User: Fold this.
Amino acid sequence: MAFGAIFIIAIVAMMLVRPLAMSFLSWHRTAGLLEERRAEVNVLEQRHDLLREQVEYFRTSAFVAEQARTYGMTAPGETAFVIRELVHPESAAEYAISRLRNATVDDPVALAAG
Assistant:
């Protein structure tokens, strides 16, 4: 009889302990996910603030002037200068050699003399 009572008490205890343990594990997992989501929200809020600052800057006259200069526009009273080629010296030598090769092949006088 004592063995049967202990067995029944053990079964009832297991039936109570298992759901409690599973609930605790589920709560712990949910708490971890909640912390992850809060961290993501924090990162997204920081990005949102940065983008808002960029939009405010894009609406300023300084940004408009900066973009206008990239398209070659000048402010009133300024003189625009155009630099035709700005080439690195090594690139210039390669360019000159390729021009000479093309001139030799394309020039009928050079072909006739060769």
Notes: Residues 34 and 40 are 10 Å apart (CA to CA).
